[in-house]
């Protein structure tokens, strides 16, 4: 095979590969994305949906789940999530909560505070 044929084949493979990467859409891992101000917060034992957040006007926090979302004490970055959510509640700031369905309930995985 000549050098020009090899270059053409490599170029074609690169173009096709690049097009495949551009055509793919990112998978959204969240079962729920809700926005609102925090209406109430509940606190329970460490692994019993320890920190529960209810947003104003939210009927379902994630697909098929309850109206609230939660964190457990063992969750990564738990203390930072709790501090940020409590500050948002105190200031009346809008919150975006991204959650995944875990055993029928909406576990918080990411938040954004405006």
Q: For the CA atoms, what is the radius of gyration?
A: 22 Å
CATH top level?
Answer: Mainly Beta
Using the 3D structure, state the CATH architecture. Beta Barrel
CATH topology tier name: OB fold (Dihydrolipoamide Acetyltransferase, E2P)
Query: How many E strands?
Result: 5
Number of domains: 1
Helix content estimate = 25-40%
Envelope shape:
elongated
Counting DSSP H or I runs of 4 or more residues, the number of helices is: 2
Low-confidence stretches: none
Mean pLDDT: 88
Order of helices and strands: HEEEHEE
Distance between the termini: 60 Å
Percent strand equals 25-35%
Structural class: alpha+beta
Give a short account of the largest sheet.
Answer: 5 strands, mixed, barrel
Largest beta sheet: what is the strand line-up?
1-2-3-5-4
Fold and architecture overview:
- By secondary structure, the protein is an alpha+beta fold.
- It has a single domain (32-113), classed as OB fold (Dihydrolipoamide Acetyltransferase, E2P), CATH 2.40.50.
- The chain has two helices and five strands, in the order αβββαββ.
- It has helices at residues 3-23, 78-91, and strands spanning 32-43, 51-55, 68-71, 94-102, 105-113.
- Strand 4 (94-102) and strand 5 form a beta hairpin.
Topology of this structure?
Layout: H1 3-23, E1 32-43, E2 51-55, E3 68-71, H2 78-91, E4 94-102, E5 105-113
Task: Give a brief rundown of this model.
The protein has 114 residues and is α+β, with helices and mostly antiparallel strands.
Q: Which descriptors apply to this entry?
A:
114 residues; alpha+beta; OB fold (Dihydrolipoamide Acetyltransferase, E2P); 31% helix; elongated
